# Entry
Amino acid sequence: MVGSAEAFLKYNKDNVMKHLLAIEAHLRELEEGYRPDHASCVIKHILQLEEQCEEGISHAAELGQDEVAKIFKRVRDEAESIRKALLEGRPPAEIIRIVRAVRRVAEKLDPSFELEKCTTCTVDLGKVKAGHEGSGDLRKMEEEYADKVLSYLSEKYGVRKPKLVLLDKCPGEPADFGLYVKDRKEIVLCRGGVDVHKLAHEFAHYLQDVRKADVDWEEGECEAESFALNVVRGREAGQGHGEVARDVPASVAAAVLVAGVLVNLALLLARK
Ligand SMILES: [Zn+2]
# Structure
């Protein structure tokens, strides 16, 4: 029965990886402050993951593959820590990090599982530059840069990546405005004006939206600006308010607010 044990073992390995990927995908949809019943999809996959590990252990033992059996055991034991974190209501971004650590263990089951080596999942800026050299396609570079920043922030804060719209026609020059459109969950920026600061500022409005933060307009602006400055300066983004007051002189903060209002108004008028 060696032939069928081999086939079953392959099936178990594939399923372990599928459940780990599904768990991560579900966690991305989960918002902070979730209730345990919202996490039930993830729990289901964790249970199935454990079941596949149990089967994998016995099929590997049948084939005398002790090392493989050990890996299945480790994955099964570590799956418990994912479940525990979930039941404790840990933030999704934190649990995603645990899932990835478990996935790195599971990747040892099959060389084709080494997903870290996948170059199509992430934008390699070095390659982007080389690829566009001489082609003059700087528009594409700006788009890819924006996408990379948004991917990074979305992953860091455990949320789904917001849509990005780059406008060719802007309400004014220079092209330094940004807008978050709540009902379409879109970040709108102007071509030629994309930078980390603007992306992070609009991303903060997106976070306020998906986390249903109860902030008024002015508070929301202060918080978004503080978030953006912290991102650009490489500090951990603050959760509370009043960060702007500490980091930036009040006059500068006020100027930023006024500029934001004018630009938003201009854009709304332009869209009418
Ligand atoms: Zn804003």
